[in-house]
Amino acid sequence: MSGRACPQALYTSASRTLEGPGFGVYAHSADWPAEVGRTRKALGALVGFRPADGEAYGVLCRGTGRVLYRAVAARADGFGRPGNYLVHLLWDPSGRLGARELLALRRAGRFLDALPEDSSPTPELPPLRVAAADRPAPALTPDEVDALTPPLAGLLATLARGAGSCALPVRTASGREVAEVLVAVLPRALTAGVSLQAGTREDDGDTAPVRVQLTDSPAPAPAGPHDTERARTLLEAASKAELAPDDLADLRRLDAWLFADAWAEQDAAALSADQVASVLESSAAPGWLARGSNAAVALEVAAGSPVVEAGLRAAVDRWPAVGELVRGRVLAALLDEVFDGAEGPAELFVEIAGIGQRDLCAALADEVRRGRRVARLDRAAGLLVEQALTLGVDLPLLGLTGETWELALLATRRPVVGDALVAQWRSGGGWTGEHGALLGHLLVADPGWLARLGDAVPVSALPPALRWAALRLDVAGVGALAEAVATGDSAGRGWALREVVFGSELPAGDVEQVLGRRLELLLVDDGWPREVAEAFARSRGDSPFRRRRRAD
């Protein structure tokens, strides 16, 4: 048969054992582990008793392995001595065999009741091959469900604590074997750390965190309401041939299997964190998250609950619809932060949604194209704009924000923004009021914009923009702007003097400072012949501007 080859050992009273006459190890496999024991002394409490009721059996943990055993009373030995017994032990080094296999071996009669007639002591006993036990769904009547609910609830309560012991009756009043039903109903992974023993229990070195003792005592006292609900629901499902999957390794996942559909009928705000996590792991998650504020509440709960965070991440990965839903909500919150200054989502939410910088930048561009504007172009928003353009996102700048001055500063200080603005300005469909408003701010930020934009600015739009900018500049700024006009594509129209120097409405003394630096250049721009302008500039000591200052 297929299965695991388990080393075995036999302990008994016989006319001859490996240790001599009397009680001792009669036989063991060659690879029976020395750490479990190969002598009566080493095996200790595993073999040191005669079963009081004719039989004892169990499975216990020893490190990473498992010991499965059965002890039975035996007839008198060859010398007529009473009180004999036989202990048949199996060793599973993988630790994967458990109570199901123990009960299946016992049920199939594969544990020995007596030594074979023609046997002799040997340290070369062949291993016994043990297959994983089948898991048939028990057929249960309503009365049996009622009888089995208290012992199963008691075991579930012990599992919930993570450690401890639990006493269960061997049979119900109707004769149903409790352990047989419970190991079929409970997932294998959930009971991986459970040992089971029927009969006398001594200090046998069991390292299992949860120990179950089968006794003839009545059923344990009622467990808590949730464990009782779990137990009844599990048994009712089993009676319909519905068994929880064997890979459910904790009670929260078991609850998800049992109750997620019912919890999915409720809003997230009414559920505990574990219940939210259970719904997220169920097939009801997509529809539940799409309803009302459930997605928003689940995200908030995830911030303080690792199990909800894990469940939400798994749901995003498992269902594209959930991923799009969570992504949409988090992205909307990020955009509200950028455009309106609202409080943004937690970094954890962004991570769960899987939103990268490029995703946010592309969404920002889409919103701007739809007409939405950034209310405050602060440092964070400015960095996002710069990042978007660096990534090659086609982000419209002219319709980005009503904070024209902040946009002008950003375009002036950040080369990638400035280059994109020039490119969009030149490729635009025509001059608009936004162009005019932004042009004035750009000239205040840096007169060099006049040369950068060049012929992309209509001639008719330049004078009012120059005058608007000049009114907002200091003496040095007016001088720089005037020089840019006089040396740029618009030179020769007299705008440097008329729109900038005199349009600035600076005090006469400040105007003279501006004129004193580049008077010849400004006069030539105003249409004066160069030689006349040069002569006038040389004689500016007697200029009417100086005389007016002395008169003042």
TrEMBL record:
InterPro entries (UniProt xref): GAP1-N2
Q: Which domain of life is it from?
A: Bacteria
Q: Record's Pfam families?
A: GAP1-N2
* UniProt source species: Geodermatophilus poikilotrophus
Domain GTPase-associated protein 1 N-terminal residues, every copy = 7-128
Q: What protein name applies here?
A: GTPase-associated protein 1 N-terminal domain-containing protein
